[in-house]
């Protein structure tokens, strides 16, 4: 119960929330607007807030001067395969942590949580060396493996929270009916938890899609580059071409934004449940 | 966070908990149970051990070796040499100061704005779900790309921020934002505040919604005003979540060079280098040993910080009872 609010309070509240919405969305608006301006209008000052004419030339240039199509394909391959594997693996680990009591449980959880807090950059050099030894350096499959390891801890913790929301009775009933444990997990629990699993998949996909430092370290040839690696190349070049850059940014942002919008409710639930439960 | 409620123990898969066969069956059951746990955890555990813990361990040991990209085969032990080099490096102290400014300057406004938003969002309104999804969107973007977006907006010649400032009459001539030693850090922090407010808003909103209505009803019966209810009911109830959120966020921002990389890459003249972005630059120069030593220093500082922070917030909580 929250006591009723005065009219002035209401006005303040809606103005504040509206203002924050504008501030939040403005950078997105700006990069989209920049991307669809003709090249000459991008470098105009005072700035044009609504373009006088629209043009796709930045996108055309982007695909002409760089292999952006290849980078997109690489990113999709790596992110989809990594996110799929991570979600499957952490379904198993999250399930065990949610449903069983065992001595090492605290230690296992701690081992996962710690990876979320320490600067992973210390591992970059040795990881490169390890991948050289395994023959996986500059390979999309090698990067995929590293991404799987990167995403497992958080994905496990998130899915564990979703498992805890499903009553035990469900899979017990299935197991009494002669289902194996793994059968009960995939035939009974997974269908019930679909929204949570989709959210975990999306979260993992976005983490991989956005990852920069590992891909910059492990990928060397242009043919294997993912989108963030390529963007990093654009930005370190002497003269940044903001036309192609904004086009590339828009193409990078849109897929993840659409996915997040669909799953935001469950992602929020997954993120907050752990912390609030304490 | 890692402990489970004792009540869960009773909820273990109880199906054949007391099999009629007695002890031997029971042992077989226990063994099967251990096997299940092991088999289900193995893929996750192996992946994390091989690709996270192993390189991290090697990296940590590398802090005590002479280890550069120019001579990977030969890595003689060198004791504390790498640490001495770092402590003798004047740029290091600059990055430490920058890191403090970066963390404090980001987290305080993020917390305050995030808290205010959460309070405003607590009451249901039409399209609240849509609103939450919209303000959530920065999270779909990488920190690096956020940096790039703000690099463009803060551009000194064609940037929209200078344009807005000029139009509103706040400045008379365009500011050189990212090229200026004095303005670069504030610009980077503004971008980071923009990025991080949502996280606080969402965590605090979830915490606010966990406060039981009865508490508010009781307080209202006692005739407590809004301000008193806030300080005496709401804040104490969500204190643990607040403390934990701030701790996690502090560590996270400390370890967050992505945005800086996209926006300034540490420039101008190292003025926006934080310790972790500096560490990456050293790594990219091939000075692995030195980078590892810096990494160990960071971990040590963060661990000490976390322990003190947890002790401090715990004491407060107990004093409150």
TrEMBL record, chain A:
<comment type="similarity">
    <text>Belongs to the binding-protein-dependent transport system permease family.</text>
</comment>
<keyword id="KW-0472">Membrane</keyword>
<feature type="transmembrane region" description="Helical">
    <location>
        <begin position="242"/>
        <end position="263"/>
    </location>
</feature>
<dbReference type="Pfam" id="PF00528">
    <property type="entry name" value="BPD_transp_1"/>
</dbReference>
<keyword id="KW-0812">Transmembrane</keyword>
<keyword id="KW-0813">Transport</keyword>
<feature type="domain" description="ABC transmembrane type-1">
    <location>
        <begin position="72"/>
        <end position="263"/>
    </location>
</feature>
<dbReference type="InterPro" id="IPR000515">
    <property type="entry name" value="MetI-like"/>
</dbReference>
<protein>
    <submittedName>
        <fullName>Carbohydrate ABC transporter permease</fullName>
    </submittedName>
</protein>
<dbReference type="InterPro" id="IPR035906">
    <property type="entry name" value="MetI-like_sf"/>
</dbReference>
<feature type="transmembrane region" description="Helical">
    <location>
        <begin position="184"/>
        <end position="206"/>
    </location>
</feature>
<keyword id="KW-1133">Transmembrane helix</keyword>
<keyword id="KW-1003">Cell membrane</keyword>
<dbReference type="InterPro" id="IPR050901">
    <property type="entry name" value="BP-dep_ABC_trans_perm"/>
</dbReference>
<feature type="transmembrane region" description="Helical">
    <location>
        <begin position="76"/>
        <end position="97"/>
    </location>
</feature>
<dbReference type="GO" id="GO:0005886">
    <property type="term" value="C:plasma membrane"/>
</dbReference>
<feature type="transmembrane region" description="Helical">
    <location>
        <begin position="12"/>
        <end position="33"/>
    </location>
</feature>
<feature type="transmembrane region" description="Helical">
    <location>
        <begin position="143"/>
        <end position="163"/>
    </location>
</feature>
<feature type="transmembrane region" description="Helical">
    <location>
        <begin position="109"/>
        <end position="131"/>
    </location>
</feature>
<dbReference type="GO" id="GO:0055085">
    <property type="term" value="P:transmembrane transport"/>
</dbReference>
From TrEMBL, chain B:
<feature type="transmembrane region" description="Helical">
    <location>
        <begin position="229"/>
        <end position="254"/>
    </location>
</feature>
<keyword id="KW-1133">Transmembrane helix</keyword>
<keyword id="KW-0812">Transmembrane</keyword>
<keyword id="KW-0813">Transport</keyword>
<feature type="domain" description="ABC transmembrane type-1">
    <location>
        <begin position="96"/>
        <end position="309"/>
    </location>
</feature>
<feature type="transmembrane region" description="Helical">
    <location>
        <begin position="133"/>
        <end position="154"/>
    </location>
</feature>
<feature type="transmembrane region" description="Helical">
    <location>
        <begin position="293"/>
        <end position="312"/>
    </location>
</feature>
<dbReference type="GO" id="GO:0055085">
    <property type="term" value="P:transmembrane transport"/>
</dbReference>
<feature type="transmembrane region" description="Helical">
    <location>
        <begin position="183"/>
        <end position="208"/>
    </location>
</feature>
<keyword id="KW-0472">Membrane</keyword>
<dbReference type="InterPro" id="IPR000515">
    <property type="entry name" value="MetI-like"/>
</dbReference>
<feature type="transmembrane region" description="Helical">
    <location>
        <begin position="100"/>
        <end position="121"/>
    </location>
</feature>
<dbReference type="Pfam" id="PF00528">
    <property type="entry name" value="BPD_transp_1"/>
</dbReference>
<dbReference type="InterPro" id="IPR035906">
    <property type="entry name" value="MetI-like_sf"/>
</dbReference>
<feature type="compositionally biased region" description="Low complexity">
    <location>
        <begin position="1"/>
        <end position="23"/>
    </location>
</feature>
<feature type="transmembrane region" description="Helical">
    <location>
        <begin position="34"/>
        <end position="54"/>
    </location>
</feature>
<dbReference type="GO" id="GO:0005886">
    <property type="term" value="C:plasma membrane"/>
</dbReference>
<feature type="region of interest" description="Disordered">
    <location>
        <begin position="1"/>
        <end position="26"/>
    </location>
</feature>
<protein>
    <submittedName>
        <fullName>Sugar ABC transporter permease</fullName>
    </submittedName>
</protein>
<keyword id="KW-1003">Cell membrane</keyword>
<comment type="similarity">
    <text>Belongs to the binding-protein-dependent transport system permease family.</text>
</comment>
